[in-house]
Amino acid sequence: MTHEHEKPPSTGMLMVVLFLGVLMGAMDIAILSPALPSIQADLGTAERDLALLFSIYILFNLVGTPLMSKLSDLFGRRTIYLIDVALFAAGSLGVALLPTFAGILVARGVQGFGAGGIFPVASAVIGDVYPAERRGRALGLIGMVFGLAFIIGPVIAGLLLPFGWRLLFWINLPLAALVMALGFNRLPRARKESPGRFDAAGAVVLSVILAAFAYGASRVDTEVFLPSLLTPFSGGLILLALILIPVFVIVERRAESPIMDVRMFANRQIVFAGILNVISGAMEAGLVFMPLYAVAAFGASDTNASFLLLPLVAAMVVGSPLAGAALDRVGPRVVVAFGTIVMTVGLTALGFAARFGLAGYIISTMCIGIGLSALLGAPIRYILLREARPEQRSMAQGLVNIQGGVGQLLSAAVLGAVASSISEKTVAYASDFLVLAAVGAVSVVFAFLIKRRASAP
């Protein structure tokens, strides 16, 4: 990459730009849930259709992630990061203005597409600008954003909803304008001198794979899990995605500048990190079942059950920057091994929390939060920044998003099937967390396969 003789950006203000951009994208997910009843009442939308507001965002987020990541490797971080923020703002404006549910779904797709590039490009910027001994701390601060968003989002929603749900999306516009104004002079302008021909074929095949898998997995009926896998709109689309994977590999091996360089997977550390990342996505999906477990096991109201997630989120907010700082001191193997062990212990205890009482439930969730903070975000991204070549950084960071999304979709389908197969709900949700604990035990094994130092290039 060329650097156009630019001075190194101020890392303090640069971190503000990255932090605000990621917070904007993360908070949009957390802020939507409290608004759903208002959206339904205003638009007269069927309750089952409200889930489309989430699924279309996730679908376009997955498709946008590899595309924007590759474009930032080719054309520079600043250009693509600002485009991503602008797309997110345009989608937010559409949600705030469009009168029909169909139009709002299109706008949510634009939002998701733009957000797909914000986090991986931000992580790649950290790899470009920060020296190796400071990357962990910087990634930890960015990773903290997601826990923070799930604390701030519902609070902001509570304050603004009395004035109309559309105001929740208007507030993205001044925030996006601030990020773009600050980022224009502070984001690195480096770009390839000769980016080469864009890998259009690879982009199309990968987009079809991700779209088919995401839509197919979201259509799995957890109450009739196996029969639903035999339908064309769930199992058929998942099968299509699997069939296209070898086609994608062939296309990428022939591409001049592949959208996803499959040679990365010759590095075993990247493969191990990918497995851990899919598992961490599975754990994230399991968080959805925690309030349901609290309702079934302890008779908590829906509102109180949601508040019982706050100890877990607080543990993640505190743990993420600490895990990032530890990465710089002791390396990723110690951090990830600690996180997977604590998370697995917490999940196992949560599976038996109905016997331990509410205090046991809260302590278990805090252990899970601490474990996830040492696995999600900073540690996996740190490994990818360390192992991938500079020209692959954003591409590798996009891969983190894709793998996490795959883990979430698979886990949601499997856990939903387990819960639906057991009539007694306390036992059903406890079984979900014991299944996750077993998966967590597998992650411990892979954590110890992570090297202390980077592999030789």
- Give the overall shape, derived from the CA principal axes: globular
Number of domains: 3
CATH class of the largest domain: Mainly Alpha
The name of the CATH topology of the largest domain is Growth Hormone, Chain: A
Portion in strands? under 5%
- Calculate the mean pLDDT score and round it: 84
Gyration radius over CA = 21 Å
The CATH homologous superfamily of the largest domain is named MFS general substrate transporter like domains
CATH architecture type of the largest domain? Up-down Bundle
Number of helices: 21
Alpha-carbon distance between the termini? 18 Å
Number of strands: 0
List the secondary-structure elements in sequence, H or E: HHHHHHHHHHHHHHHHHHHHH
Low-confidence stretches: 1-8
Largest β sheet strand count, sense and barrel closure: none
User: What structural class do helix, strand and pairing data support?
Assistant: mainly alpha
Estimated helix fraction: over 70%
